[in-house]
Amino acid sequence: MNRHGLTIDRDGDINFPPSAVPARLPRGGDGEDPGWPRGGRAEVGRFCLGGRSFEAGTEREISDRIKAGAMDRPSLDEYFMEIASVVATRSTCLRHQVGAVLVREKRILSTGYNGAPMGLPHCLEVGCRRENVESGYRHELCRAVHAEQNAIIQAAIHGVSTSGATLYCTHQPCILCAKIIINSQIQRVVYGNPYPDDEALRFLELAGVEVAMIPSPPPSEEPG
């Protein structure tokens, strides 16, 4: 039985709990109660299960739809990258929004997004000193703490080891973040959008950090 209360029989059919399929549905506007159809399968209207909405049909039809939908299940990399994209929406940076998620053994250790240090005014309020600087240059002018750095910092604050973890980030890390990632003993980096910093990738490769890029919707118009 899964978290929705469903069980799968030997034939691979999904058996619905009583709460999922209505026992009786009125037919038309005459107020009649048709009860159960003779075939032993309940007629259903529309209901939601596991975030999906189903049209009228039989239990078997709905079962087939759910089993077919399982083929669209995201991979773990896609799953955590999607979470990183949601984290990025919390960013207060004027130039770009970046989100990062630290994961080990399929468990989230911490998250981070780029923004001003704790207690300082947001860049949204005071502006960005790098606004007219080409992307990838003069990071020392930036007021923000990068998403990757914030994720690692949050883990440190709460006493969580990052050794052996995977970092999911909406953008490729810069050279500053790459050095921190290496010394944090993070063993894998997955990112969704490129960044103009080949040196960062070279550092990660030399340190033996596995790097993978998977396509993801850009959370902003331009990378930092």
Automatic annotation (TrEMBL):
Region listing for Disordered, in residue ranges: 1-38
Name of the featured protein: CMP/dCMP deaminase, zinc-binding protein
CDD domains the UniProt entry points to: deoxycytidylate_deaminase
CMP/dCMP-type deaminase domain ranges (all copies): 75-204
Biased composition (Basic and acidic residues): 1-13
One GO cellular component term noted in the UniProt record for this chain: cytoplasm
SUPFAM superfamilies found in the cross-reference section: Cytidine deaminase-like (SSF53927)
InterPro entries assigned: APOBEC/CMP_deaminase_Zn-bd, CMP_dCMP_dom, Cytidine_deaminase-like, dCMP_deaminase-rel, Deoxycytidylate_deaminase_dom
Family from the record: Belongs to the cytidine and deoxycytidylate deaminase family.
Keywords, in A-Z order: Hydrolase, Metal-binding, Zinc
Cofactor needs: Zn(2+)
GO molecular function annotation: dCMP deaminase activity; zinc ion binding
One Pfam family this sequence matches: dCMP_cyt_deam_1
The keyword Hydrolase belongs to this UniProt entry's keyword annotation: yes
